[in-house]
Amino acid sequence: MAAILHAIQHAAALRRERVFRDRRHPLDLYDDEQMFKLYRFSRQGCLHLINRLSRRIQHRTQRNHALPPSLQVFVALRFFATGSVMDCTSCIHGIHISTTSRTVRRVALALGELRDEVIKFPETMEEVRTAQVDFFNLAGMPNVVGAVDGTHVELHGAPLDDEYIYTNRKGKHSINVQLICNARYKITNVCARWPGSTHDSRVLRNSRIGERFADGELPGILVGDSGYPLQPWLITPLRDPQGNAERNYNRAHCRTRVTIEQLNGQLKNKFRCLMGQGIQMSAPRACDIIIACAVLFNIAKDLKEPEQAIEVEPDEVPHHPADQNQLTGIALRAELINNYFS
Asked: What is the pTM of this model?
């Protein structure tokens, strides 16, 4: 018996003592200005997110001092806001880097579950009419329900076997993210699953929203830059406008399409994990982060959160050979110019 007790005592002595860090809660530390600077949401906005996500991210037990939902939300928001390596985020919250990684993943997936609830494309006649009126009030462009564009989010986790398909035209690894917005700078559609070598036009053509427009399921038209082929449901600017009517059309098209370029800048400036050196995760996890940021962006719009600075990225303009759909689009664009801009 003495030998057994000695062995138990010896094993206990060799066991590493567990250390629980002092977790600092942002709600107790920061004022409104500091909170927005660190987390890109005001105090009220953070509380709204905590209430909305708590049920989805609550741990089943409190074993091992599990993080409460409120602190999970702050940890994830800090990563989205900065894009810094995990150890920086873990330091200011008093948790281990592995806990930070799991928490960011957990919150990102929970936000992804809100995607269909928060990001909606106008489909009912009332929604379509509202979107068309809003865009028409911008620059007089009729029947527009959305502005579309692609933006690249750099990636630091491209798989080695498929590295080449993630290499974009600038020689960097990225995810090509397609965004569609309305005139009120809200995201109405997001597609974040294509590697950086994929062209914007291919992303749209193979996306669910593009297929629905091509099949005539959705009313209205989209506006896009010259990187997209002209379609009956997608209008692009004229390359060499002749006469006042065509120049008026190009000006109206530019003033309408700039909404998506400004939205791209707002999104990346609000969530800096989408900027700079890129997301240091595998491609599938990076796509989940992008979707989470898009959901947070729309929630911020709904809550009328403060805006971030705008940065606009220039895009190259490729050439697309004409097909039957493009010829139909040319005819419809000419009719639109004659009816509204002459």
From this structure: 0.85
